[in-house]
Amino acid sequence: MRYVEQLPYEIEEENHVTITMADGVRLSARIWRPVSSGREPVPAVVECIPYRKNDLTSTRDAIHHPYIAGHGYACVRVDLRGTGESEGVLLDEYLEQEQRDAEEVLAWVAAQPWCDGNTGMTGISWGAFAALQTAARRPESLKAIVIASFTDDRYADDMHYLGGAMLSDNLAEAGTMFAYATCPPDPEVVGERWRDMWRERLEAARPWVLEWLRHPHRDAYWQHASLSEDYTRLKCPVLASSGWADGYSNAVTRLLAGADVPRKGLIGPWSHKLPHLGEPGPAIGYLQEVVRWWDHWLKGIDNGAMDGPMLRAWMQESVPPSTSYEERPGRWVGEPSWPSPHVEEVVHPLRGSAIVTAEEAEPAAVPGRTRTVRSPLSVGQFAGKWASYNAPPDLPYDQREEDGGSLVYESEPLTERVEILGSPSVGLEVAASAPVAQVTARISDVAPDGRATRVTYGVLNLTHRESDEHPRPLEPGRRYRARITLNGVAQAFPPGHRIRLSLSTSYWPLVWPAPEPALLTVHGEGAALTLPVRPTDEPDGMPQTAFGEPEGCRPPPVTRLTEPEQAWNVSRSLVDYRSALDIVKDRGLQRYEENGIEVGLRACEKYTSVADDFSSPSGRSAWTMTFSRPGWDVRVETSTVLTADAEEFRVDATLDGYEDGRRVFSRTWNETVPRNLA
User: Cross-referenced Pfam families, in alphabetical order (predicted)?
Assistant: First the structure.
């Protein structure tokens, strides 16, 4: 990244500004704005997230908020109520209260003497959710949004459920927020009342996973704040981005197709990162794009921000399987609209164990035949993370071992290059031996040497084959039609490579297994893989130089006091047949020199199972977060353990708070939730 030392506007910064809500709760904000804005008001850009502006996101914030401010904007970074130095408690994600707070923040910002009354909202992940959800409420001052790594569908395309099957990230994200929502405010900012504020957070805490388990189907809980329920609610322009390695890539194209506002989409090779910090690379000059967007929609400058393709996507080249990449080779392609007129849905029937063309599947060709699969629980150990963070390395590894427990269909070696852009799908006629069964579909790029790189995947809880709102159990042995939609991707398959489709009945630990093992029978009639093919002779639709180099402001210094630790270990015992995935994400102890806070963050996840005992899977998310400076030393420790039998989930959780090494708070939860076809 190139650090920019000189910006068009000299800026000033306020580290702690309070914004009072209607109920008296005061939210804490950090504001960067031009020095001249006191006499020449400017538009404002707001970001609302729960991740502590004073320390944990301060480095990231300092790269882009001063950069935007230095181009003539007031940037307002707000901690949600109950986080950082904001008062109140945080009880769950995306509640009605959070969106009312955001509306009040925007109204407050628009009324400030340094703001000209025009506002935008921005963010990645939670901040992007907040921006999109607030935009759907149409606050008067909000003129545009810029969002990254988001979803418009909280049920079908977030880290909770996928295709009606529960993701292990349902536990992991709950563990994350169990820790973040119980951290104390900074005494140097809020004074001696910090203990009372902290105690209020600790007393109000609960494992959020309990609520998420109580809603295994699409209901009002998930429909709230899901724009996909009614795209007409969105009236302001949106610049939306994500990465193919992220869990949120589908939302960009879905928003382009569903919304009727000025909109642009951008999908790179990145994991869950902002595009100017994108990993795997190449990262891009995203902040320059953002400034151009704000200049057009908040300042009314005719700068061509809406020129060019509606969607810009990174067409990925073939690569060997790896859990991490520094760079993904490829090129940018542009589409004038979405769905794109350049992408053709090509149907490939499945015949025997082959992926064939429609011509090869004519009646005279090899007839379809019945095949069966009952996958071991070990299928999925090399699946990687639902949403890659690229630290520790968390992308899927070589799929050959996974394919050993799967039904495999494969094309002949390709005689010419094939490029796909969009969401593949698999249509099947199946029967299962149990009332609840899953099927995971994976597409891999198979090199001539046999190595298999997963390109995309999709999951379907077959009880959701017709409806996420009203799933129905299967009648064992009965045949059903089902369609599995895989995650969107842009991928090139070179000549000499094969395209492989793999079907499995488990994908643990990425997806929590069904209540019992099921034998899945796949009937050959009508079975087909549909690929969104972008013709290779189609022009890229992009200028020679698509983006500038990444740039931003230089963040303040952070001193590393202890070394970080990262681990992603798969183990199996051939004595007791226990398998485990151990994940460690330890940032090490760091001192933020700007305010002297020393912060430690260690998160551990462990997923275990025994042989093919579907009642044995267990997941644990444990966090330790420490905050200290001379005269102040606090620690929060959380643990959430999730297990299940055929009838119910069990949650065993603990929360402990420490001051000066002495435990000052402790609480334990031991609760069960019915599975209800999950």
Answer: Peptidase_S15, PepX_C
